[in-house]
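Researcher: I'd like a structural prediction for the single chain below. Treat it as a standalone chain; there are no partners to consider.
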Amino acid sequence: MTVAIISAPEDREWLQDVHLVTCKRLPPFALAIVNGNEDWPTSIVLYETDHVNSVTMELRPDANGIFHCATDRY
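Model: Treating it as a single chain, here is the predicted structure.
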């Protein structure tokens, strides 16, 4: 399994524009970990700060590969 750590502002913007476009109310995040292929991730974990103990949310795609925010908070 491939893991990509995304922290640069332009990479976070790419992640939002490409994979998280259907999540309209994302929490602010400083770091994301993309599991699986970057073009077809199996999960994305968002971190509020650049510390792994600050998990904001974990997102998994549906059967069509589309990510949805699955929480009442967002």
